[in-house]
Design a protein that fits this description.
The chain is of the alpha/beta class. It contains 8 helices and 9 strands. α1 packs across α8 and α2 crosses α3. The two termini are 38 Å apart.
């Protein structure tokens, strides 16, 4: 193959890649979950998605929220979701769909509940803060713990804040009790990590986890992903989902002519959120295509300049 033929082949491949990229964008934008432009918009869209899912019979839902920001006074996982949980819970407490039903926010322990009781100040009448009683692995709730779980079944909406593998037995009992009572209660888990140690969770815990996991619908997902330290030339990404729209992967790139509010849509997924390594792969592919596009523009500019020079020389 001659050099001219090789250049033509490479150019055709670049054109095809760019056209595929453009076609994919146009098709996916219609169904993608957009990136919220403010914290309040994120909360509003979250509430709308949860309520829509409730109306469709999804009574066990999950929310994943991570934007890299947190509460300066509270560290760890709770600090990263505290402000979001507060606004989400207070907004849901006023939702007409709940018909004045109680919204119960359930923390992992008494300390977290006490802290938020102070930090959140005055609460809507329909909003109650609570915590899970301890229930040992492999056993059922009894005594005061059982009575407390039964009392918490009075909610129209139960918001579980950062539940972990430790709370798995209590959550299982809670769901069982509400189900046996035939109550119309929706459970939403925020940033749940119900199985973090597969070795310690083997056996009965694994069974409980799988039973619960199979019933959960990921209603809301908003996640900020920064590139790895060894790939500084990549842009950041945001993964979004607001049910019933699919998981959507956006590249933060305001310089891209096809970006929407500063974000370029890379991919959509129906079943589950992409793993971080998948997002990095998408960012790398986008970077490479843009580099090829930039080289093509430079080459075309050089050719145009050479042509103008040749025309000027021939006319002089």
């Amino acid at each position: 193959m001659s050099r001219i033929q090789l250049q033509a082949s490479v150019s055709a491949e670049m054109e095809q890649a760019l056209q595929m990229r453009e076609d994919k964008v146009m098709q996916a934008l219609e169904m993608a979950a957009p990136v919220p432009q403010s914290f309040q918009q994120a909360v509003t869209w979250s509430c709308t998605s949860v309520l829509q899912a409730m109306q469709s019979g999804r009574t066990r839902q999950t929310i994943y929220f991570y934007t890299g920001d947190g509460d300066g006074d509270v560290g760890g996982e709770l600090g990263s979701i505290l402000a979001y949980t507060e606004q989400f819970a207070k907004t849901m407490a006023g939702a007409k769909l709940l018909e004045g039903g109680k919204v119960r926010v359930i923390f992992t322990d008494m300390g977290a509940k006490a802290m938020c009781t102070t930090k959140w100040g005055d609460l809507p009448e329909e909003l109650v803060l609570d915590y899970f009683p301890p229930v040992l692995k492999g056993s059922s709730a009894e005594g005061d713990g059982l009575r407390k779980l039964k009392e918490m079944c009075d909610a129209k909406l139960a918001i579980l804040v950062g539940p972990t593998q430790i709370e798995l037995p209590a959550i299982t009992e809670y769901l069982r009790l509400s189900g046996e009572a035939g109550l119309d209660m929706t459970v939403v888990m925020i940033n749940a990590k119900l199985l973090t140690n597969t070795y310690a969770g083997a056996g009965s815990s694994m069974k409980l986890f799988k039973e619960i996991e199979s019933t959960l619908v990921p209603t809301v997902h908003l996640e900020q992903l920064d590139p790895p330290d060894d790939k500084p030339d990549l842009n950041s990404a945001v993964v979004t989902r607001f049910w019933p729209r699919p998981f959507s992967v956006w590249e933060e790139n305001p310089d891209d002519p096809d970006s929407v509010d500063g974000f370029f849509l890379l991919d959509i997924k129906e079943a589950e959120a992409p793993a971080p390594i998948e997002v990095v792969t998408l960012l790398e592919a986008s970077r490479d295509i843009l580099k090829q596009f930039a080289k093509k523009k430079e080459l075309q500019a050089a050719r145009d300049k050479a042509r103008r020079s040749a025309e000027k020389a021939s006319n002089s």
